[in-house]
Amino acid sequence: MLISRQTSLSKNIVQFCRYLRHKGFVLGVPDEATALEALQFLNYSDRGIFRLALKSVLCKSKNQLLEFDQFFNSYWKEIGEAVDSKIKATQKHVLKPTAKDASFKSLKAWLNGNKSEEEEEAASYSTNESLSQRNFADIPDDEVDELLRLIKALSRRLAVKAGRRYEKTNKINLPDLRRTLRRNMRCGGELLEIVYRKPKRNRTKLVVICDVSRSMELYAGFLLQFMYAFQQVYSRVETFAFSTSLQHITSLLRQNDFQSAMKLLGEKNEGWGGGTRIGKSLDKFVKEYASKVVDKKTIVIIMSDGWDTGDLDLLHQSMESIHNHCKKLIWLNPLAGYADYKPYVAGMQTALPYTDIFAAVHNAESLKNLGKWL
User: Fold this and answer.
1) Are strands 298-303 and 246-248 parallel, antiparallel or unpaired?
2) Phi, psi of 315 (to 5 degrees)
3) Distance of CA 201 to the CA centre of its chain
């Protein structure tokens, strides 16, 4: 199998998973996401630790465990040879190295176990690194795909966390380690009594309403990716988008991949990217959808910069109605990520009295905060 040459560690991990599938491993997108997420918990500059981490995530049988080391060494050896070839070609023909060339060099350093503190363009994946902390508006074109993958992994993890709840039970099911240790502290640490838990049905529902107007164009694509990936895992969510009018997009986001969903959204919504009519859009939500999708077990999330060119009275009435009928109303504003931001625009001033939580949504790091609010 011809191994495609990639310039970043995360892309090579995805490519490695495809390579293993070709060798008979049964791996899906969740396995790839888990492998990528694992990098934030280990020192992946250590080749041995990196190999064992991938082995623990990607192997599902004894035979795969026996074969893995051979496939691992074969794949990364070929990648090393490909990177060597690229660097030599660059040195021979290119006078001024590009950002991609720097990425090749960084990947080569990692392949050789170079742990130098020298500053180079990072060729790795970690939600703790600079990409997750950079403003969506400042992401260059060649890093968009990387960020979309990061957001996808993050949103799926948040969705699983939001749906995972447990409660105490007398039936022998799952041991509750934390309560067991606490219960037996008076016994000197001996586990004389085991406390059990069971999955608790989480009845919390979500409604996500995203602003896709012209003023949000630098953020909307990333936020829609978050909504798409979250909806794939969390079934109790209804999604909406608006510019000059509101569109219910839950069914449109049920495509097999994000690009297909975006294509369908573009075909169905030619008016997107225009002005912002938040009041009119939320008024339509209240009149046509709220009675069906909002109750006291529903968290409503509105993602918008608050710039409203429409009727502020409608915005006031709609926000009041939604706030009175939902469990919690969260407003996420990408502009709030700037240190000197103040919510002075009329739309934001009108909405804030009915907002339980107001926060930034300007980068992947800020999306993590949803975990504590859900």
Assistant:
1) unpaired
2) -65, -45
3) 24
Residue 158, pLDDT score: 78
pTM of the full structure: 0.58
Q: What letter represents residue 88's amino acid?
A: K
- Cβ contact 328:357 at 8 Å: yes
- Cα(79)–Cα(5) distance, integer angstroms: 7
CATH superfamily for 205-373 is: von Willebrand factor, type A domain (3.40.50.410)
Q: How far is CA 369 from CA 11, 158, 362, in A?
A: 26, 9, 12
Nearest to 285 by CA among 225, 212, 207, 219: 207
CA separation for the pair 34, 296 (Å, rounded) = 34
Spell 59-88 as b/e; 16+ CB within 10 A means b.
beeeebeebbeebbeebbeebeebbeebbe
pLDDT in tens, 39-48: 767 666 678 8
**DSSP string of 286-315, one letter each residue:** HHHTHHHH-STTEEEEEE------S-HHHH
> CB-based contacts of 256: which residues, under 8 Å, 6+ apart?
none
Rounded Cα gap, residues 207 and 300, in angstroms: 5
Task: Provide the 10 A C-beta neighbour count for residue 130.
Answer: 9
Please name the amino acid found at residue 371. Answer: G
Delimit the CATH 3.40.50.410 region(s) of the chain.
Answer: 205-373
Q: How confident is the model at residue 374 (pLDDT cuts 50, 70, 90)?
A: confident
